[in-house]
Amino acid sequence: MKDHPTAVHEDSVEDRVAERILVLAPTGDDALLVSRILEERGLDTVVVPDLTELTRELHAGAGAVLIASEAIDNVESSSILQEVLERQDTWSEMPILLFGGSVEDAASRATEQLGTRAQIVLLERPLGIATFVTATEAALRSRRRQYLVKQLLDELAASAVEIERVHDDANRAKDEFIATLAHELRSPMTAILGWIQMLKMDDLDPADAASALSMLESSTKVQSHIVEDLMDVSRILAGKVMVEPEVVELGPLVRNMVATFRPGAAAQGIELTADIAAEPLMAWADGSRLQQVGWNLISNAIKFTPHGGSVRVSLAREGDQGVIRVCDTGQGLSQELLDHVFERYRQGDGGAAKSARGLGLGLAIVHHLIVSHGGTVEAFSDGPGKGAEFVVTLPLHKPSAV
After folding, report:
1. pLDDT of residue 256
2. Are residues 216 and 267 in the same domain?
C-alpha cells in the first residue's frame, strides 16, 4: 500500500524542474550533442527548438539555460526573452551560458540583447567538454543558492505573518485582561460601598450588621488577592520573586489547604475530598509559596466546577518526587487552551463559567513558583465539559548523612 503517492510525485517534480537545463542551439544536432554530454553526467536537459518555446519552459522553472549566440541574433526574438528575464522575482537571476565566437565581441552585445536580469557566462568556441561541463555545474550551483534565498525569503514572510498574528493575539489578550481587571475590582468595591452606606445609616440590627462586616471582610480579601496577584506578576517580570525554602512536610500543608476550602465548596454543592499519603513527605520549599500554589489550583477547580460536581486533591510519593494532583469534574479545557494555560492573561473558554474567568494570572504565577522550586506543573483535560487535572511535582528532601 502506497502512502500519499500524489504528494511525493509533486515534490519530486518541483525538485526536477528547479534542476532542469534548457538547451537552445541553431541546429538540432548541436543541441542533441550538448544534451547527451550533460545527461551522461546525470544532468537533466530539455532541448527547445526556438526562443518562444524557451520562454514557455522558463515560466515552468529551470536551473540554467544554454544558448548559442546565433539563436538570439534576431532582435525581435531576443526582446521576448529579455522581457521574461526582466519579470523574474527579486531573488532570481537566471544563469545563462552563451556560446559564441570572440568573448570581447559578445559581452556588450549579450547584455544589450538579454538585459541585466540574467547571470550571463560567455563561453568562447571551440570549447572543451570538461570546461563546458564545469561551467554548467557552476551555473547550477549558483541557481541552487538562489533557490535557498527564495526559501529563506518565504520563511521570513511566513514568520512576519506569524509575528503579526501573535502580536494581535497579545494585544487582544491584554485588552481582555484590562476589561476583566476592571470588572474584578469593581464588583467587590461595589459590595464594599453598599455595605458601608448601610452601616452609616445605623439602622441595621446586630445580626445584619455582623453580616455586613463579614461581607466587607470577604470583599476586601478578594481585592487583596487580586492586588497580590498583580504584584506577583510584576515581581516575576522584574525577576524579584523571593522564595525562602526550608524543610516542609507536604501532608499537613495540603490537608490544611483542603480544609480551608471545604466549607465554601460545600456551600456551592461541590464535594471536596483529599487523599493524603500516610508517610511523611518532606520538601525543601517555601511553605507560604506552596500555599499560594494550592490556593490558586483548588480555588480554580472549585470555580469551574458546577453544582453537584467534585474536586479531589491528592498527595503521593512517586519515586523521589512528591506529587500533588488537583482533579475536578468541571468545565474542562480545550486543546488550544491547554497549550497556553500557564501563560499570563490566558483565561478560560467562557461559557457558563465566563463570569468567573478571573484575570488569567493565577496559573502563570503557579508555574513560575513551582519551577522556582525545581518542580514541574502540568495540565490535563479530555476537552470541554470533561473536567481537568493539574499535576504538581516537587523534589523530596533527602536528609544529609551524618
Report:
1. 92
2. no
Output the 3-class SS for the chain. CCCCHHHHHHHHHHHHHHHCEEEECCCHHHHHHHHHHHHCCCCCEEECCCHHHHHHHHHHCCCEEEEEHHHHCCHHHHHHHHHHHHCCCCCCCEEEEEEECCHHHHHHHHHHHHCCCEEEEEEECCCCHHHHHHHHHHHHHHHHHHHHHHHHHHHHHHHHHHHHHHHHHHHHHHHHHHHHHHHHHHHHHHHHHHHHHHHHHCCCCHHHHHHHHHHHHHHHHHHHHHHHHHHHHHHHHHCCCCCCCEEEEHHHHHHHHHHHHHHHHHHCCCEEEEEECCCCCEEEECHHHHHHHHHHHHHHHHHCCCCCCEEEEEEEEECCEEEEEEEECCCCCCHHHHCCCCCCCCCCCCHHHHHHCCCCCHHHHHHHHHHHCCCEEEEECCCCCCCEEEEEEEEECCCCCC
Give domain status of residue 73, yes or no. Answer: yes
Residues 184 and 253 in one domain: no
Residue 36 lies in domain = 5-127
Task: Kindly state the DSSP code that residue 380 receives in the 8-state scheme.
Answer: E
Task: Give the pLDDT confidence of 20-36 residue by residue, as tens digits.
Answer: 999 987 666 778 888 88
Average pLDDT over all residues of the chain: 82
Q: What is the pLDDT of residue 132?
A: 87
- Same structural domain, 256 and 364: yes
Backbone angles phi, psi at 246, to 5 degrees: -155, 175
Q: Say what the pLDDT of residue 356 is.
A: 46
pTM over 0.70, yes/no: no
Query: Cis link prior to 26 (omega < 30° from 0)?
Result: no
Rounded mean pLDDT, 157-175: 84
For residues 305 and 359, membership in a common domain is answered with yes
Q: In total, how many domains does the chain have? A: 3
Q: What is the mean pLDDT of residues 214-234?
A: 77
Residue 162 inside a domain? The answer is no
